[in-house]
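Thread: quick sanity check before group meeting

JM: Hey all, I'm pulling together slides for Thursday and realized we never actually wrote out the predicted structure for the chain we discussed last week. Dropping the sequence here so it's in one place. If anyone has concerns about the input, flag it before I start.
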Amino acid sequence: MASIDFLVQEWLRLDKNPTTRSEIEKLYADQNIEELEKRLRNRLSFGTAGLRSNMEAGFSRMNDLTVIQASQGLCMYLLDTLPTSVSKGVVIGHDHRHNSERFARLTAAIFITKGFTVYFYRGLVHTPLVPFGVKRLGASCGIMITASHNPKQDNGYKVYWENGCQIIPPHDKGIAKSILNNLEPWTWDADLVDNNSLCVDNVKEISDFYFEELKELSRHREDNASSKIKFVYTAMHGVGTQVAKRAFEVFSFNPFLSTKEQEEPDPDFPTVAFPNPEEGKGALALAIKTADENGARIIFANDPDADRFSVSEKQKNGEWNIFSGNQIGIILASAVLENYNAQGKPINKLAMLASTVSSNMLEKMAKVEGFYFEETLTGFKWLGNKAIDLNQQGYEVLFAYEEAIGFMIGNIVKDKDGISALVTFAELTVQLDKRGLTVSEYLEELYNKYGYFVSDNSYFICYSPQTIDKIFNKIRFGENPIKSSELNYPYTYQLSYPSTLAGYKITYIRDLTIGYDTSKPDSKATLPISKSSHMITFGLENSCILTLRTSGTEPKIKYYLELSGKDKAEVKNELHKITKGVADELLEPEKYGLVYRTE
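JM (edit): ok, ran it. Output follows.
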C-alpha cells in the first residue's frame, strides 16, 4: 500500500490548480493524516450516476484533476468501443453549481484534444436536454455536470451512452478501468473551447426541438388556456424556471406564480439546506407561503437540475398535502393510460415500468387494465435501457417512474424529466377540475379501483461506510458476521437472516448484493446484482414488502415499506408497527449512531 507521503507528492505532481494544491499542501503541513487518507487513499468511484462528491482537493473528490482524468478515461473508452465516436461527437451540458461551467469546459477541452466534435451547451441547461441532444444528434455520448438535488458543496459528472440512457454494465466498469489507464492530464487549457471549429454551440436549436416534442404530449391546449387554476412553481434555486415557463407556454397555460425567493439559479441555495422537494414542508415552505398569499391550491416543484418533480395540493381543511413519488407516479400513469386509450391503440402494446422499490400499485393497474408492466433495479439507468429493450420488442413504453420523484413520460428522453412531468400533471389537473375533482379526490378514486397501497419511505444518515457494512452484514449473518471480502457463492450455509419482523413472519428474502432470492427455485436472483452496494428485500406474511438499500450518491440507509388492503386506516396502523420494527429490530439507530431524517 502506498504511503500517504507518496500520495501527497503524486497529487502535487499532477494538480495544476493552485486552490486545490494549497488544500493538500496545508493538510500535509498540518500533518492531518486522517483527512489526507480520506481525500487521497481511494479514487472517486465511477458508478450509478457517473461521479458525485464534495468539491475539494483529493482523488476521492470532485475537482479539476478528477474531472480531467474521468474525461480522459471516457474519451479513450469511446475510441476503443465506438469506431465512429469522433465524428458522432459528444454532448456536454452543465447546471449552475459552483465550478460546473469550469468542469464542463475542461471536459470539452479533453475531447477536443482527440479531435471529437463537441456539442457544448453554453449557458445553463436542465439535465434532460443532454440525453435529448444525444438522441437528436446521434452523438456517441453525453455528459452533464450536475449534482442534482445534493447540497451546495457537491458536484457530479453524469454520463449518457449513445442510446441516450445512463450507462449500465459493462460500460461503467470499462470506463472506470479506462480512467485508471489515463491519469496523466492531456491539457489544463479550458479555453480550448473558445473559437474552436470542433466546438459547436447548438443549445438553442436543440432546445427548440425539445419543446417541439414536448408540445406533442399536450391533448387539451384550449382547456389549458381557459383554465382559472393558479399554479405555484419553485425551481429550488436551480435551472428550472425558464424551462418551466416555456413548457407552460407550449401547453398554452397561463403563466404560473413563481416562488420569487427561489426562482433564480443560485449555487449557494440560500433558502434551503437540502434543495430537494422530497424533503417535505421544510424545503417547500416558501412555495407554500407564495401559494397561501395568492390563493393557489397547487404547488409544483423541480429539483435544481429539473429532472425530478413534486406536487402539493391544499386540502379543504387548509392543510397542504405533499404527494409522495408513488402517488404522483400512479396519477401520471393513469393520465398516460387515459391519453393512450383515447387514441384507440391496442392496450397490449402499451408498456409501463417502475423500479423495484416503487409501489406495486402500477403492477396492479397493469393487471386490471391489460397493459404490460415490468420492474427494474433502482435508477433510471435501468428503467431507460429496459424501455429501449421493450421498444425493440414492439411495445410503446410511454411511462416509467421511481418513487424518488423521477418520471419518464413519452419518448422525449429515456430518462427522468421533471419538465414533461410538470406540464403533463398540470394538464391533468385542469381536466380533473373540469370534472369537479381535486387531485386528492382523483387519487382516492384510483385507490378505490386498484386497492389502497400505503407506503412509508424514509432514511437514516450514516457517514461511515464501515458502519453501513456492519449493519447489513449483521442482517445477513447474525451477530457474528463474516467479512464481506470472505463471501463466496452460494452463501446459503453462511446466511442467517431474521425470520420475523414486528411479529410478522418473513416469507421471502431477496438480497441483490449477493444474488440470493428465496422466491426462486434455486434461490438465485434474476435481477442484476451489485456487490458495490447493499440492497435487501423482505416479503412478510401480511403481504408487506420492505426494501433496505444504500444510496449511490448520499450517505444514507434508505428503507421502503408498502402494504396494501381495502381498509386505509387499518393498513396505515399495520404499516406504522412494521416501520417501528425496521428501526428497533434491523437498523438499531442508537446502537450504530444513525441520524434520523428530519423535516
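AS: nice. The chain has 20 helices and 23 strands. The longest strand covers residues 452-461.
JM: adding both to the slides.
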